[in-house]
Amino acid sequence: MFILLRWVLKTLCVTLCALPFLSAVALAQLPPAPIKLAMIEGLSGANGNAGEAVYRNLVWAVERVNARAGVKLVLERYDSKGQNEEAISALRSAIDNGARVILQGNSSANAAALIDAINKHNERDPGRRVLFLNYSAVDPVLTNEKCSFWHFRFDAHADMRMAALMEVIRDDKALKAVYLMGQDYSFGQAVLREARRQLTAQRPDVYIVGEELHPMARVKDFLPYATKIKASGAQAVITGNWGNDLSLLIKAARDVGFDGKFYTFYGNALGAPAAIGEAGIGKVVAVADWMPNVQTAGSDAFYRSFRVRYPQPSDDYVHMRMQLLIEALAQSVESAARATPPGGSYAALDVAVVAAHMERASVSLGGQSGSMRVQDHQFQQPLVVGIMDRQGTPGVKFDVEGSGYGFRVVKTIAPEAAALPTSCKMQRP
Fold it and tell me: Measured between alpha carbons, how far is residue 278 from residues 5, 318, 386, 387 in Å?
């Protein structure tokens, strides 16, 4: 009996004593805990198509990162319905569900509300701090007066985009009369304000013959607006409109016979080229961080691979900046991990350490490169301006959304030329 008891105790001791070692071996074989990303975006309502288009971009970018060794990402989605209150509610839910990184962009008003909420949350609950990566909210104030250590913008802001458009407008010597049209919220107001300022400075010979702000995502019939534009004698419209507010405006202008140009921020996507058709050839101008027809081998391969992933023409909405955003995040997390004593996981990294590395992120993909500016967390990258033309004409290898129309790049602005000063006074933790 004594011998049997001693054998049982010895066996039990061997088993229990081995547990720490076995646990360490088992843990070493486990994949690193993924970092949760929460996209908070308008996924329903009038501009739901824009939110879904962004989601496809982010899914593809996350898939590419996860296919490599290193950090793993999980993308979750929350519908803000484009409303500030819903965005803040989604933020709380995302944080409660373990999100470490917030992604948003299709409303500057939502972005401003999120910056305020994240600043307060990160100060109040440092153990659950989050980063805010912005892919499209371009109100200049977000990296100026409202700049935040926790917020990083990967799109060129409205003043930068307007300056790029103005390089083409400056060369359009026949242009003498313009109409300013925008959505009535912070971004649309900023576009019109900067258009007035830059026209006064660079084209004082051009008259502003009309100016209009309309409710965002609520106008179903733009014919009255298009009629006013035509009657004003404008030769061109300058607009920051996006989503259905842009495609419906352009379609209405075509229907009333407006024969002028559209200088746009987003005229190269989400239905606009198909809506205007032949009438847009040589007349719809768009500015972007990248376009499929930039005519480099790296860009061609990048775009073709996106179309393999999303072959439906209706899904043809790819933005380089959204891909570079995810690449910068992966780079910053991995750099932060290398600088942190071993023993933790990617998901357990201090968000402030990741942010400190993202301040100096420099990334490249598909022949395009960009880097984050430390002072204000405004990404610095080339900008391009394109003019709509038929697919197959010189410089238009690829069309948009199967429309038969694409954009020929007519101006490329280097990062240092696209950069603008900042008034940011960054408060760091």
Answer: 92, 23, 16, 13
Full-model pTM: 0.89
The three-class DSSP label of residue 225 is: helix
How far apart, in whole angstroms, are the C-alpha atoms of residue 131 and residue 401?
Answer: 33
| Spatial CB neighbours of 328, under 8 Å, sequence gap ≥ 6 | 152, 154, 358, 361, 363, 372
Element holding 102 (H helix, E strand): strand 101-104
- Same fold yes or no, 35-156+308-380 and 159-288+382-418: yes
* pLDDT at 217 (0 to 100): 87
Distance in angstroms (rounded) separating the CA atoms of residues 232 and 177: 9
Residue range 197-217: average pLDDT? 96
The domain defined by 159-288+382-418 folds into Rossmann fold (3.40.50)
CA distance 72 to 35: 6
Q: Give the relative orientation of helices 244-255 and 223-231 as an angle to the nearest 10 degrees.
A: 60
H-type alpha helices, 232-312: 244-255, 272-276, 297-309
Question: Under a CB-based contact definition with an 8 Å cutoff, are residues 137 and 157 in contact?
Answer: no
Distance in angstroms (rounded) separating the CA atoms of residues 57 and 320: 9
CA distance 153 to 377: 6
- Please choose, from the candidates 100, 156, 161, the residue with its C-alpha nearest in 3D space to the C-alpha of residue 324: 156
Q: How far apart are CA 44 and CA 217, in angstroms?
A: 11
In this structure, are residues 191 and 265 in contact, taking their beta carbons and an 8 Å threshold?
Answer: yes
For the chain, domain boundaries:
35-156+308-380, 159-288+382-418
pLDDT band at 31 (very low <50, low <70, confident <90, very high): low
Phi, then psi, of 235 in degrees rounded to 5 = -95, -15
Residue 10, pLDDT above cutoff 70: no
* Residue 312 confidence (pLDDT) above 70: yes
Q: Does domain 35-156+308-380 have CATH number 3.40.50.2300?
A: yes
